Please model this.
Amino acid sequence: MNADTTTHRVWRVGADIDTDALAPGAYMKFGIDEIARHCLQRVRPDFAGQVQPGDVLVAGPNFGIGSSREQAAAALVRLGVAAVIAPSFNGLYFRNAFNVGLLLLTCSQAETLAEGEGITFDPVAGRIQRPGGTPAELHCETVPGFLLDMVQAGGLLNLLKQRQTS
Amino acid sequence: MAQPQTLAQKLIAAACGRETVAEGEIVTCAVDLAMFHDSSGPRRLKPMLEELGATLWDPSRIVLVIDHYVPESDDESRRIVRIARDWAAEQQLPNVYDSVGICHVVVPQHGHIRPGMFCVGGDSHSPTGGAFGAYMFGIGSTEMLGVAVTGQIWVKVPKTLMMHWRGRLADGVTAKDMMLHMIGRYGMNGGRYQAVEFCGEAVRALSMQERMTLSNMSAELGSQVGLIAPDETTAAWLREAGVTEELDLSRWQSDRNADAEWHEFDAAALAPQVAAPHSPANARGVDTYSDVPVQVAYIGACTGAKLEDLRAAATVLRGRRLADGMQLMVAPASRQDQDQADREGVMQVLRDAGAQVLATSCGACAGYGGSIPDGASVIATTARNFKGRMGSETAQVYLASPYTVAASAVAGRVADPREFLA
Model:
């Protein structure tokens, strides 16, 4: 995965965002489009309708606690979210996210990022840049290559398909 | 002398074909058993397998449990369950449990999880299998696809957080209270996706089903697994479940000098715990919430409606009635547990007290089937009380043990069960 030079707009949410907030149980029987329409409605009712492809979600600690339902990550992919940046993630959510092609950046200073600001990030170097912000650069944990490969491929399923054809 | 290893390390080493493994290493493990359910299983896996043109690595290592969308309440549920049943037939899966209870309870009750195994489940409460000395954790559907095709999965060898409980629990205090206390102390990511191992006199004294409650809620502690080293209690339970193979109890123990992070607890000093809305991490002693009125009590889920949970509730409810206006719903965790509770008169005690008995499935716990009333204050034996989790955005859900839920159902407010057991 190459360093990304696109500027991404920040959406801010708080700590302990759970999988019921991301993929509410009542919609779990439906497909990902319907689940995505209700993604985060409990904490940010404006999010699913207004988020733009390439935007990033910045959260407090413990993002993704709760269920194993990977729709909680796939809904963000469906909405075009480029990455979730938080000080910590639930371990099961972390695995699911990469498996469905969602990039997660673990950044202890995530909460210094502000709603609406524009950032760029480089998961290989472990760097988030924020022109005009303070501090101008944040460090995040580097992401292992095999996980970045999954994000680049658009998830494990696509990666397995690519390997079949190559 | 080989490097001392924790139980978690020994289980991972065995699964990746090594003598020892070191903390932080990423290794690929062979999976002994993969558990699917109707929600995350066939309806998600079947299309992906077809897209890949791939087949199952080993149907004999797959156990399918239909528990989330049963009984089918609408067309979507019927469709999801139909896919699971058709696919099971098409794949000739030898191990299918349809509408007989919740996977985390049904699968061990049929002897599928044994000491030394390496298992995955398509559900976050899969660490329940750790109670049997197996390395078992939850994964999502896409990652399960990888397992279904290759029979392998990667893990990062975890640190072990040793939760050492000395002493004995008082009457009316349970594994659920131990777990709520630990989650209250360390938070929902306190386990940091490492391995938790529960040990000490209080853990050894727990029955198998109580141990399962500890391991089950490792999910809420944020650990990858929640292990308990097997002993004679484990062996006796597995024999009862029909397991005839030899069990190597001495092998699956943490070495005394293995590197681990120790945490100490006094079981005798533990009071019943209650977690306030909307997080299990809001757990405090029951006294903190004793003035909170409740209108609905729910005894259900893999966490809190096994045979011993039903017995605990009956101990409190015997000869008593629900408070005026109180609704008590009981959804037994498995048919086997419900049948045994029936034979023992436990179900009758619950009904006589005014309980309404629901189907043995995940039910309202996950907000998938049925729901609790809007605006109600609810006390439940379930594992999670996130806002909206049980189907209503406006309900206030408190989590507690079956004793405490039953006592609260009689009192009409959050109540200390020890007052009812004296």
Chain B touches chain A through 48 residues (CB under 8 Å). The mean pLDDT of chain B is 96.
